[in-house]
């Protein structure tokens, strides 16, 4: 069988095609699947999508008309997929329920450290042989407070690193993680975490209940010199409210690996185009804001695990088996979809 894989990054392609070698042929495309590209999948029973895919009801309908019966998404998040529509169309939807949590946690820490110690600004200066230290002063993290929103696998990995720095630990989640508690984490209300934390990091999925979890009120509750890091999902942060907050001089720094309107922007070269997203353009003007393009997961280890899980999802679909990654199995929504 030949599978078409959308949104394949250059560094990912060889790993993906090698993983399927001996099983199936893979047609790798660098474009995401959406309204404009869905027709390419005509005749392919199995489609592999990337995190930036648009798999709304109309796109799924187009894929189904073309013969697609299974979508294997190469990500943990699936807020871009209309699962009910997929079920109505009798499709099977698989994702990757987990991969190396260290990839994202370590990158989140990279953002936090780069923002705190003004590393990007310093590098830009020294490239121009400007070796002044003006405006580069950061803060020790030891003894300060890290607030972790979401203490699952990734949140726990971030917490372990924070513990190694000697930070005080606050957490917020629907259920306490005993491993985090053992490290000294105290679970508090969300508002209290925002108010008391020097460093706030987000590690929860994007659901209706978490959309704009960091809104104007949450930003107002934070310390004036707090650092905010988001390496989870862009929609967790109200970007307009964030711009308004930064304009007042509040927050010591912000590290964003995701952005709520990143679809069609991230993973593409837009350097020769006019940036039409005014909010993102404004965010990029702040000297204490660091934006990267959804790369926290992008390590050999994590991508390898994502691809291995994707291969297993396809093989299980073809063998009429289910597994923990399946969100919809031949038109049946799984009970644990969220």
Automatic annotation (TrEMBL):
InterPro entries: D-isomer_2_OHA_DH_cat_dom (IPR006139), D-isomer_DH_CS (IPR029753), D-isomer_DH_CS1 (IPR029752), D-isomer_DH_NAD-bd (IPR006140), D-LDH-like (IPR058205), NAD(P)-bd_dom_sf (IPR036291). Residues 8-326 form the D-isomer specific 2-hydroxyacid dehydrogenase catalytic domain. One of its GO terms (molecular function) is D-lactate dehydrogenase (NAD+) activity. Keywords: NAD, Oxidoreductase. Residues 110-296 form the D-isomer specific 2-hydroxyacid dehydrogenase NAD-binding domain. Belongs to the D-isomer specific 2-hydroxyacid dehydrogenase family. This is 2-hydroxyacid dehydrogenase.
